[in-house]
Write a structure and sequence with these properties.
Helix content: 10-25%
Low-confidence stretches: 1-6, 8-25, 27-34
Largest sheet: 11 strands, mixed
Length: 554
């Protein structure tokens, strides 16, 4: 008797054989002519509640890893700017932070108005055929046809992955099939309709939204008992001392058993997502559409598997805030590349705008991935969650600072600071020992968050400008209690004060001048000049040849 190989493993060997290289994002910068034969098709596949860590496994998603990882670019430092279903989806379609598009919770979809700022509206205006499959926006009535879509098979998420209500091109009906399988079938059907003799020269936008691996955690029958890799948890699950966390986190009691009870069926649900990816790409190949399609694979938010005792999403910790994120476009986006820039769901729309040649008329907060632009920090934000206040966070490659608020979303109830290089599981809050005298530059950190929460608001800097500016804390000395004074992108003159200061260059060629206190002067990426003052000052050069005078050279 021979054993059959599960469908989702047929490309496992190929996926495992691919070596993912390091390198920058490369793309052809010239935009296509919209609505013409050369205009790119657009494909977005958005999963639901998929954490980035421990889910993109070759045993679980080999076809997805092959099509998007090996044949596209992987973005390991990707975020959902508000890690909750509806805000995550609205951010993707508008290219805006939730504080600018107004969709801050799962119950605020009406704030999108007539959807005039959405990707589907812009592409519709450019003559694209548009189609939606699967979940759309939370609390969108199933009998309300979604605007700016030519075709749609829109699911009404409920307590079952079978026997669900769908609006199929204006007709509400019950579908008995497994929801992800039906999403796959409708996606393939629409691709075929896009490529009839009458429509083949017209570009298309297909937005695919499987209701997986969201609860209810029901795998398809063929994967109900499929083996999944063994997993022993991570240090955040076994965090022994949570006294440095907010009160609601201290009370959270989820453990490894709770995590496994969700993790295993979620992985089995993702096997069906991988089958769906295979079906879609097989159809693209059959229809000769693969080469001229820009495609993305990502999730609306991450998910907590008992990390810090918590479950679910809408939390600032990285397994909740980060998402899997891939992009591909043969000949334009480099295959097999890992791009380590800070990116987000809000970058999908501006990337499509650049690829198609659209100049959006609304303010876009995201950045095209095809630009060389690099953020120095990322804003992640959330609003009141019942009895628990909202929060806002700045994440940089070196640290994450989190403020949790009272019900007014302004008064700070708790602060957290984590050094990610040495504490990736966020176990030691450097501001959590109730000893303000040894805290880092809390004032600077809070100012940084406050500015980001207002980016793009009338009269304030744009989000693109603000998130490329200098960060609040000096590199390598984030934990030092001092007034951190950080240079900007250009040539700066930084002056110390009467107190103990920490002056550091950033990107430009800076001049750092100590004040009357005992100061530390740190060179940045440029060629800097460091001048000691009246105190006992220390100078440390950066990567470029720096000049230090009147201070103790370290």
């Amino acid at each position: 008797m021979s054993l059959s190989v599960p469908r989702h493993l047929t490309s496992l060997v190929a996926a495992m054989a691919v070596t993912i290289g390091l390198g920058g994002f490369q793309a052809v910068r010239e935009p296509a002519s919209a609505a013409g034969p050369s205009a790119p098709n657009v494909l977005i596949i958005l999963t639901d509640d998929q954490r980035p860590f421990d889910t993109m496994l070759p045993e679980i998603m080999p076809e997805t890893l092959q099509r998007f990882g090996a044949e596209g670019t992987t973005f390991p430092n990707a975020f959902a700017t508000t890690p909750l279903c509806c805000p995550g989806r609205a951010g993707l379609l508008t290219g805006q932070f939730a504080h600018n598009n107004g969709v801050r919770t799962n119950g605020s979809v009406e704030n999108l108005g007539n959807h005039s700022t959405t990707l589907e509206k812009y592409l519709e205006d450019e003559g694209y055929q548009t189609a939606l499959t699967g979940k759309f926006l939370n609390q969108w009535p199933v009998d309300d046809n979604p605007p700016h879509w030519d075709r749609w098979s829109m699911m009404d998420p409920g307590p079952d992955q079978f026997n669900t209500q769908w609006n199929i091109d204006g007709v509400v009906q019950t579908v008995t099939e497994y929801s992800t399988d039906f999403t796959a079938q409708r996606s393939v059907d629409y691709l075929a309709e896009f490529n009839t003799p009458a429509t083949d020269d017209q570009p298309w936008f297909l937005y695919v939204n499987p209701y997986s691996p969201h609860a209810p955690y029901q795998p398809a029958p063929e994967y109900a008992n499929a083996p999944v890799p063994a997993w022993a948890g991570n240090p955040a699950i076994f965090e022994a001392n949570k006294s440095d966390k907010p009160p609601y986190v201290r009370k959270a009691k989820r453990d490894l058993a709770d995590a496994v009870a969700i993790r295993d069926p979620q992985l089995r649900m993702l096997m069906s997502v991988d089958d769906m990816v295979e079906d879609i790409f097989d159809t693209l190949v059959a229809e000769d559409e693969l080469e001229n399609t820009i495609a993305f694979f990502l999730s609306d938010n991450g998910f907590l598997w008992s990390d810090h005792g918590l479950g679910g999403k809408n939390e600032p910790y990285l397994p909740s805030a980060q998402i899997p994120f891939y992009a591909r476009w043969p000949g334009r986006i480099s295959p097999g590349v890992v791009d380590t820039r800070l990116v987000a769901n809000i970058d999908v729309a501006p990337t499509v705008f650049e690829a198609v040649g659209i100049d959006p008329t609304h303010q876009v907060d995201g950045v095209s991935l095809m630009k060389a632009e690099t953020r120095s920090k990322m804003l992640v934000e959330a609003w009141n969650r019942g009895a628990i206040g909202g929060w806002a966070s700045i994440v940089t490659p070196r640290y994450q600072y989190i403020e949790t608020y009272e019900d007014d979303s302004v008064t700070i109830a708790h602060r957290q600071l984590y050094l990610l290089a040495t504490d990736p599981w966020q176990l030691q809050n450097l501001l959590g020992d109730n000893r303000a005298k040894n805290d880092s530059d809390v004032k600077g950190l809070s100012t940084e968050v406050r500015a980001a929460r207002n980016c793009g608001v009338t009269g304030m800097p744009t989000c693109r400008e603000l998130l490329t500016e200098q960060v609040a804390l000096c590199s390598g000395t984030e934990e030092i209690r001092a007034n951190h004074v950080v240079g900007g992108l250009k040539r700066d003159l930084l002056r110390g004060s009467r107190r103990a200061d920490l002056l550091c260059g950033f990107a430009g060629r800076d001049s750092l001048r100590a004040g009357r206190g005992n100061d530390v002067l740190l060179g940045g990426a440029g060629r800097d000049t460091m001048l000691g003052g009246k105190g006992k000052d220390r100078c440390k050069g950066g990567p470029r040849p720096d000049v230090a005078r009147g201070c103790e050279r370290k």
